[in-house]
Amino acid sequence: MISVEKYNSLSEAADSVASGGRYYGGGTLVMRAVNYAEEGYDRLVVAHDPVLKEIRVDGNRLVIGAGVTMAEIVGSKDAGFLAVAARSIGGPAIRNAATVGGNLFAEHPYGDFTTALLALDATVTMSGGIQQDLEQFLSSRENITGIVQSVSCTLPDRGTFRFRKISRVKPKGISVMSIAAWLPQPGGRISNARIAFGAMGPASLRAKGAEQALEGSGLDETSADRAGAALSNDLQPFDDPIASAWYRRPSLAGSAVPTARRKQPSMATMCSFGTRSATVRIS
Question: What is the pTM of this model?
């Protein structure tokens, strides 16, 4: 027998989860476990707290409630820069249910939106108010207790953020990998770049060597080659039914590096990433 408990307050729902309940957000992850009769899913907890549905600008950051769906991201003016990542999540029915908070716990091949958040220096806020940067959160998410209240991320300047999901089936196939890059360029030089990959490790991860290789450089072929060479030490590709580690691993020759070419000064930066078998242009 499955019971469902509904609360108007996030704190009350968190108390119920702490006593053994399973939080039910959009249901795309939880209902799969329920349908397969996995142990521990006989008591579901639902929260209707308005804070879970917020999308608001706070200074230079965007705060997104954990209960916001991918469809709501696509329809939000404030979150427009994340629309490309949200659209990559399944089809319309999935996007109407899948939540930002749930995606933080989605294992490969389903956590692509989290890759975009990681590139944008995201911070996770739990129901008790405790905050944690997303990178640290992902390293320990299996042991997380409580309920995610919201996620905040940097509001990128126009043209500095790019995302691409690579899949074999279009338009809504599961990902071979996902790539997100935030490349701020004050004064025409890259500063504090953040590059994140999905499906290249146990969770979304940053390519810190590539980020460092781009620091202080312009977006040109030389800096791109340096970043590409660094990627081999950043990534942890694996074999699975979707693709082999060899297929995922970027070529050391530099085909998987971020590069930029400006056809005219007003055009946004283009980043190119590739594998041994294909090149994918983020534009």
Answer: 0.87
Q: Which amino acid is at 47?
A: A
Cα–Cα distance for residue pair 199/197, rounded to 1 Å = 7
pLDDT computed for residue 260 by the predictor: 35
Closest by Cα among 68, 132, 142 to 102: 68
Locate the DSSP E strands across the chain: 3-7, 22-23, 43-47, 55-58, 61-65, 123-126, 131-133, 148-154, 161-167, 175-182, 194-198, 205-206, 271-274, 279-282
Give the SS3 label for residue 133: strand
Give the C-alpha distances (Å, rounded to integers) separating 273 from 27, 52, 179, 190, 249: 33, 35, 8, 18, 11
User: Which two tokens mark 214?
Assistant: 């781009």
| 126 three-state secondary structure | strand
* Residue (of 141, 149, 130) closest to 105 by Cα position: 141
Output the CA angle 109-177-251, nearest 5 degrees: 150
CB atoms within 10 A of CB 2: 9
Q: Which residues, in sequence order, are bridge partners of residue 166? A: 177
Query: pLDDT digit string (tens) for 230-264?
Result: 887 788 788 888 888 888 875 333 334 443 333 32
